[in-house]
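Possible regression after last week's pipeline update?

I re-ran a chain I had predicted before the update to compare outputs. Posting the input and the new output here so someone can diff against the archived version. Not blocking, just want to make sure nothing changed silently.
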Amino acid sequence: MKVSLGKMVANKLKFKLLKSVNNPNSIHGIYPYRGKISAIDVQQLISQLPNKGMLLDPFCGSGTILYEARKHGLHIVGVDSNPIAVQIANAKISNFDIKQSIDKIKEIIEGIDLKKKKKMPDKAARFFHEETANQIMHLKEFYDDFNDYEKAAFLGTICLSARGCNNSKWSSTQIGKAAEVKNNIDFFSKFLMKLKKHAHPVNPNNSKIHNGDARKMSDFIKSENLKKYINEINKHIESIKWTLTKMLVDLDE
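New output (post-update):
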């Protein structure tokens, strides 16, 4: 007899108060995605689920739930409308060889001539020391040749370097503030460090993450097992939209 995972979640899941949700060395630290759920929170919930079945996350963000579910043994399907989030999520569930990645990036770096200056667009350049920006723009030339994990590490290193260039003062209330005097951050070494630090691959096992609108999942999710749930999910999405719209109207009045 099949048991509804939804009913099991509603009836049996236990929630614990955690003293800390800090986990900087995990793969989830590869990119500082705003608003992501703590992996430690996810682990305590996922560990209570069966390790067989399929988990659908229609608003997967950077893939924290998907990665932990895959590590637990579940098949996973994710959806998000943010292409950067999808790139990071794909990195987390990709199959990669970290030694090959590091050797590849080292070889690319060794072949770069930093004396040839590459200009960063002004809108972005205001957040970086000119030498850091030069390194970023040189490596950007090879971005399309990176695998998913390397791409996410590259994007995460840009964020890390922006913070460092601006005297490490960026916080949740200071994102986007540029210091008058920038620190020269060695982007190449930070990139290699990030590649090593967050390398905890899982077997993707045909996992799928879709860049799209969760309200139109039936357009790109072909699994018959999931399709029967999609209409119910869409009803909840529309209900949430109606509630938020009504709240905004009430506030406006």
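Follow-up from reviewer: compared with the archived run. The two ends are 52 Å apart (CA to CA). Marking as no regression found.
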